[in-house]
Amino acid sequence: MDQQSYDIAVVGAGAAGLTAAIFARRAAPEARIVALDGAPKIGAKILISGGGRCNVTHDVVTPDDFNGNRNAVARVLRTFTVEQTAAWFAEMGVTLKREETGKLFPTTDRARTVVDALLRACERVEIRTGTRVTAIECGAGFSPRFTIQTTRAEARATCVILATGGRSVPKTGSDGGGYALARALGHTVTETFPALVPLILEPGHWMTSLSGTSAEVELTVKGERGKVLARHRGSMLFTHFGISGPVTLDISRHWIAAKGELFVNFLPGETFESLDRQLTQVRGNLLRGRLPQRLLDVLLGEAKMHQLTKEERRRIVRALVETPVPVVRDRGFDYAEVTAGGVPLSEVDLSTMHSRKCDGLYLCGEILDVDGRIGGYNFQWAWASGKLAGEHAARSLHR
User: Fold this and answer.
1) How far apart are CA 238 and CA 260, in angstroms?
2) CA quadruple 237, 242, 246, 247: dihedral sign
3) Predicted pLDDT at 285
4) Distance (Å, rounded) from C-alpha 34 to C-alpha 31?
5) Average pLDDT score, the chain
6) Rounded mean pLDDT, 331-336
7) pLDDT band for position 1 (50/70/90)?
8) How far apart are CA 212 and CA 209, in angstroms?
9) Looking at the structure, do residues 58 and 119 belong to the same domain, yes or no?
10) CB-CB neighbours of 30 under 10 Å
11) What is the total count of domains within the chain?
């Protein structure tokens, strides 16, 4: 393409970028807005989320559901609540339903419904696919301030919104390229690593023999001297390579960040003392029905519950409430749902998402150092931060 000038250039057309473009258009109907994305098709990451159904958000979202500066996260979340998000989607023709877990999905159970709605709302935004941004230069003056180099040609823009995502699922286009752009414009980037990612165990570990079995458990990461660093409850799935499932994904970033030890309690709420006391008093079928039989068979081994020695009983109790999980490594960015780390929130004015390092630059979504639990929380961050960035980039045009 020949060099073209725009009022606003959105770099990255994922959840946050499309949201930014939509709200920028609403705030400045006459503005020339372009969304540049390196992928051949828009919305690949949205389409694979939630098992292809897209977990749009959660019925209750609080700063405690995120890792990072809670007060900073709160400032952004309260500008676009779950109720406002649901109303926005309804306005775009996407009605949401709540499932027992609190997750909100489109009633169609199709992620394509979400992508199509976002693209319809971007009707008057120029979207350029297969256009990877390779460099951004910030010049003097106000209009147009930025020169944007792409794999196709050069563009200029008064404002730039960086919404390139992180490094998770790079085949969808979020390969971490946005970090270099942010650094070139004066920002720093903290260490990045996979979050919401399955964990790989030692080859041949007994848990891998239970592939396909799931159980409600409590996972705990411990540091030096046994200090508890993180604890989550939920469903854990045994796999041929290790463990996955919601609770594993939630705890993974804490295990990676701390490089600590991981333990599993197969009977959440029970302690060594409480369970040992129960087995001493009751025995019999106390454990039957509380755990999947395949798991129970492995944990009990050849032991007979009605004739346990003290040593056998204590071994079984320990295995039930505090089994070490010998994690070798995480499964990597190819399988991670989100990225931990990124541009520090302290480098952004959180009332507008405007950069504190480069005038005219806005940042939103996963490129920032924010990552939430599984369950729609990261999408809520994308919608909220994208809306702020788009609105305020548009308003700045009239300064």
Assistant:
1) 21
2) positive
3) 67
4) 10
5) 94
6) 97
7) very low
8) 9
9) yes
10) 8
11) 2
Q: Rounded CA gap, 367 and 40, in Å?
A: 21
Domain match, 109 and 223 both:
no
Q: Is the omega angle on the peptide bond into residue 144 within 30 degrees of 0, that is, cis?
A: yes
Q: Model-level pTM?
A: 0.94
Is residue 210 within 8 A of residue 295, CB to CB? The reply is yes
- Does the structure show a pLDDT above 70 at 184? yes
Cα dihedral sign for 102, 106, 108, 113?
negative
Domain around 10: 4-193+339-396
Distance separating alpha carbons of residues 198 and 243, to the nearest angstrom: 6
DSSP assignment of 118-175: HHHHTTTSEEESS--EEEEEE-SSSTT-EEEEESS-EEEEEEEEE----SSSGGGT-S
CA distance 176 to 188: 14
- 177 in the same domain as 144: yes
Same structural domain, 175 and 215: no
Question: 98-138, pLDDT tens digit by residue?
Answer: 999 999 999 999 999 999 999 999 989 999 999 999 999 99
CA dihedral 213, 298, 217, 305 (to 10 degrees): 130
Q: What is the pLDDT of residues 201-247, one digit of tens each?
A: 999 999 999 999 999 999 999 999 899 999 999 999 999 999 999 99
Q: Give dist(CA 47, CA 334) in Å, integer.
A: 15
